[in-house]
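Write out the 3D structure for:
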Amino acid sequence: MRKTALAFALPLLLFIKMTSAATDCAPLESAINADNRQTYQQLVQGALTEKVQLATIGITKVLAEDKWLAVFATTEIADPGVFFFNEHKFVDVWGGMVEAQEQRTVTRWAHALHIPDRLTQCFFQAIVIQ
């Protein structure tokens, strides 16, 4: 009986540990609505070297922490990307998805830009291939 209980408890504990390791990103998620969508589109448009019409920029997700924004956007001229802004000034863009084992690479990249830790973790969770 003890072996059965242990066999059940061990996977459960591992699941709880993996779940608790994930950062709670809900507080960083900004709603995208008619009032702010154009602001995000304008930020992305200003960051692009090739200009596109505002209406062709899709905003799929926005994470915000302190003065930082991570704007997940699509355009007609490039693959989807995550545009990072500090105080509404463009800093850099990340393109593509990553494997879970690439977390260290993503974290180093973000820390070199001084992106806050929690925003970095939530950004990583959003781009990792499930």
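The longest strand covers residues 58-65.
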